[in-house]
Each structure stands twice: as structure tokens, then as C-alpha cells.
Hints:
Layout: E1 6-15, E2 18-28, E3 33-37, H1 44-52, E4 57-64, E5 67-68, H2 74-79, E6 82-85, H3 97-104, H4 111-117, H5 119-122, H6 134-146, E7 152-156, H7 164-179, E8 183-187, H8 191-197, E9 200-205, E10 208-214, H9 222-230, H10 237-248
Helix pairs in contact: 3-6
This protein binds adenosine-5'-triphosphate and magnesium ion.
Amino acid sequence: MATPALALEGVGVNRADIPVVHDVSLDAAPGAVTVILGANGAGKTTLMDGIAGLAPVKSGTIRLGDRSIEKLAPYKRARAGLGYVEQARTTFRTLTVEQNLLVAQQGEGDLGTVYKLFPELDKRRTLQAGYLSGGEQQMVVLGRALVSAPKVVLIDEMSLGLAPLVVRRLMTTVGELAGMGIAVVLIEQFANLALDVGTRAYVLRKGGVVYSGPCADLRGDEERLHRLYFGGPPLTAADRDAGAAESEQ
Ligand SMILES: Nc1ncnc2c1ncn2[C@@H]1O[C@H](COP(=O)(O)OP(=O)(O)OP(=O)(O)O)[C@@H](O)[C@H]1O
Ligand SMILES: [Mg+2]
């Protein structure tokens, strides 16, 4: 793999003094989407908060390019080239689309790239963000992480509450970000959509990595994903039939 844009080694992150993430080692390559999967509560957001500096990193190292960032304040990590699309983050509803993007800008930003990625926003620059559709609001949230031309972008569940068609559209943009050379780290509840756009995947369970390997090896393999998410034996044929019967009701 090319030199990783983001490299974690043995990272532990606490939440309210409780260790939640332990001993995570992970690489994200430039120009690729690295997918992080795991059940609710597995520690995905805690890990992202640790990388971004919003939760304390208790052990290990985090390198952004050739810099160690694990001790830097969040704004310094952002300046060093880290963008973060936080889970459940929303727009400033009474500000216009353009104002939303401008407040995120640090020094030299580039709104042109954002408008090119999202022509929907280009047409609505002067509209208050509160009037946008859910998908367009998520574009603003994504756009805010991009105006400072980051080298690495962490995206935590951007699909929450959005229609599948909109999610697919946003996934296309995620692929375009990688095409621009950005290292994208993508957390996604729709595992197969993420595995389609991603190169390498990591699965977290109880705060630790239980899988690290090609996305292709997990794509479409519901049984394996289930076992990785929850542990224990794989689903049996009877489990599957029961699931099918439930979904038919
Ligand atoms: N502020 C907090 N104080 C105490 N415990 C917390 C806090 N935030 C999260 N936790 C706990 O840390 C664990 C991991 O939570 P985290 O939000 O990182 O999981 P996640 O994988 O992002 O889940 P989800 O898929 O639901 O977003 C959970 O057990 C959660 O209850
Ligand atoms: Mg989360």
C-alpha cells in the first residue's frame, strides 16, 4: 500500500474515564475509501472522536502523513489536514448554504470544489440551510468538512435517516473524494453500500478490531458480517428462514 495518509497504532480511547476503544491499529490510504463497520455501541464514533481529538487518546500513536497528532488540540488536527463529518451533525439552519460553508473555512478554503461536487448546493447558495431537504443538508455538512481541502476525511454515518436513493448519491461523492486523492474513512450502517465503494475494511467489536482486510471479502456475506459484529457461531439455515418469515409478516 502507498504510505498511509492516516496511521493508527495500538490506539486506546476513553469515554468519561471508561476505556471504550482498545489497541486499534489501522491505516487509511490516500485516494481510497477505508470502511469501518460494527454493531451499535462497538466504539466506532469513540474511535473517530479519538482521531479528531474530541475524546482522550490514552495509548498508542496517530500519524497524519508524517506528523504525530495524538496530542494536538482538535483545531490543530484540522489544520494539519483532518476533516471530520460527525455523526448526527446538522447545519446552522438560519444561515445560508454559503454562510454554513464559510464558517467552516480556515484560511485558504475552496468553496468551488464543494459546489462542483454538489451542484445542488451551488443552485441554493443564498437559501437558508433550514429549508434544504435532508439529503441536501447532509451535503452541506459534508461540504463543511471539505472547504479546507483536507488530506483525510472521517465520515461517521452520513446516511442516518436518509432515503436509499439519496444515500447512493452521497456514496458516489464519497468515491469522488477518493478520486481526488483524499483518504476517506467511512463509517456506515448500510454495510454493503460502504463495501461497494471501499477498498479495505475494519470491523470493530467491543472496542477492538475483529477484522481487517479487503472489502471484497465481506461484500454480500451477511453471515460473516453478523458473526463479526456479534461474535458466536454463524447464522444457521433455520435462523435465516426465521428471519425471512419475520420480514414477510
Ligand atoms: N459520553 C459517553 N459517556 C459514557 N459512555 C459513552 C459515551 N459515549 C459513548 N459511550 C459508550 O461507549 C460505547 C461505544 O459508543 P460509540 O458511540 O463509540 O459506538 P458506535 O459504534 O459509534 O455506535 P453507533 O453505531 O450506535 O453510533 C457504548 O457502550 C456507549 O454507551
Ligand atoms: Mg456512532
